[in-house]
Design a protein that fits this description.
single chain, 247 residues, alpha/beta, Metallo-beta-lactamase, Chain A, 6-stranded mixed β-sheet, 14 strands
Length: 247
């Protein structure tokens, strides 16, 4: 398996990985304007981009996912809760779905909390093992922090859902499993995010103070430390749903 982590100037992180042997690639959380980079990388690696994911409808930047999928002839994948919300067609995914790109397997975990449609991607390589190799945690779990719960305007409910998501679908994964988040320090999508761009489940369980809290304390702590909302958030969301041409 090849794997590339692309740390962007806005503190968001995108991913490009897949099976070099069978020539299949996956792109995740692509920024608008970066599409040519993925196509260039695919050419260098002699792979075809077959799947492009967004881990949720982003509120802090304009997505290049749909455009890259169109240019590459790939499927563009979002959680099924976005059906009837977008003005474009996409491939809906739901919790537990397993998709393959050559020997690379991607399992979808529905992880609501930051947003209703948030997903994480549990990735394994058939040639290495059937066991998962790493998980892309999007804006659900960051190094040292978690995603903000207030973007939909009902932070109490979403913070409670985030606690259940973390304890039922993320922290049950193996302690030595690597996590690769959707942001690093400086992003408005969570408070007190570390500058470190990866971690493990076990490290976060030990050092991420939010993960050790019972639900009432977790909810109170997360709500009390919500960053300022991203600039032009409503326009960015509308653009990423296809309701506006640009933000």
């Amino acid at each position: 398996m090849f794997f590339k982590q692309r740390i962007n100037v806005d503190a968001s992180i995108s991913y490009f990985f897949g099976c070099g042997g069978l020539g299949k690639a996956v792109a995740v959380d692509v920024l608008a304007g970066d599409e040519a980079w993925y196509l260039e990388q695919a050419g260098k690696l002699n792979v075809a981009i077959t799947m492009v994911f967004d881990t949720h409808i982003h509120a802090d930047h304009l997505s290049g996912g749909q455009t890259l999928a169109q240019r590459a002839g790939a499927d563009y994948l979002l959680h099924e809760s976005n059906l009837d919300k977008t003005t474009f067609r996409f491939t809906p995914v739901s919790h537990g779905d397993i998709l393959s790109a050559g020997n690379t397997r991607v399992q979808v975990l529905h992880t609501p909390g930051h947003t209703e449609d948030s997903i994480c991607l549990l990735v394994s390589d058939h040639r290495r093992s059937e066991a998962p190799w790493f998980v892309l945690t999007g804006d659900t779990l960051f190094v040292g922090s978690v995603g903000r719960p207030d973007l939909a305007g009902h932070e109490q409910e979403m913070a409670e859902r985030m606690w259940h998501t973390l304890h039922e679908r993320i922290l049950t994964l193996p302690a030595d499993l690597e996590i690769f988040p959707g942001h690093t320090a400086g992003s408005p999508c969570g408070a007190d995010i570390s500058g470190k761009p990866s971690s493990t489940i076990g490290f976060e369980q030990k050092w991420n103070r939010l993960l050790a809290m019972p639900k009432p304390d977790f909810v109170a702590a997360v709500i009390a430390n919500i960053p300022q909302r991203p600039a032009n958030m409503e326009r960015l969301i509308a653009a990423n749903l296809g309701l506006a041409r640009h933000a």
